[in-house]
Amino acid sequence: MIYRLVLVAIASICIGDAAYPQDSVPNLKDPSMIAAGHDLFLQKQCAHCHGEDGRGGINLARRDLDPKGVFQSIADGREKSGLRMPAWRDVMTDEEIWKATAYVMSISHEPK
Questions:
Q1: Rounded to an integer, what distance in angstroms lies between the CA atom of residue 69 and that of residue 87?
Q2: Please, what's the largest Cα pairwise distance for the chain?
Q3: What total of structural domains would you count in the chain?
Q4: Three-state secondary-structure class, residue 28
Q5: Going residue by residue through the chain (112 aa), what tens digit of pLDDT does each one get?
Q6: Which residues have CB under 8 Å from 75's CB, separation 6+?
Q7: Can you give the CATH number for the domain in which 40 is found?
Q8: What is the DSSP secondary structure assignment for residue 79, as one 8-state letter?
Q9: Which structural domain range is residue 31 located in?
């Protein structure tokens, strides 16, 4: 039984990470990725701190963010000025983290 669980865990890690290796950035402007990221943003209660549109207490909007930095912050969490964002690496796959990153990037740049 344990052997089977280990195999399933290894397979899910390999398959989940194969979609978007952490060192490569997928197309974060893909509307389907952004929409899926918005859904995850709401499902995972990100809106509690960031607001439904990213303009909450911990504002994500109108900021110049780096996609790999956003991915890393979502995956590993972050602490700044006594506020702690939890790590999501054990909760979401890399593919889901990239989708959330796509949504954050879609709301983070000042409109031109």
A1: 13
A2: 56
A3: 1
A4: coil
A5: 443 433 333 333 444 444 445 568 899 999 999 999 999 999 999 988 888 888 887 877 767 788 999 999 999 998 888 888 999 999 999 999 999 999 999 988 654 4
A6: 87, 88, 89, 94, 97
A7: 1.10.760.10
A8: E
A9: 2-108
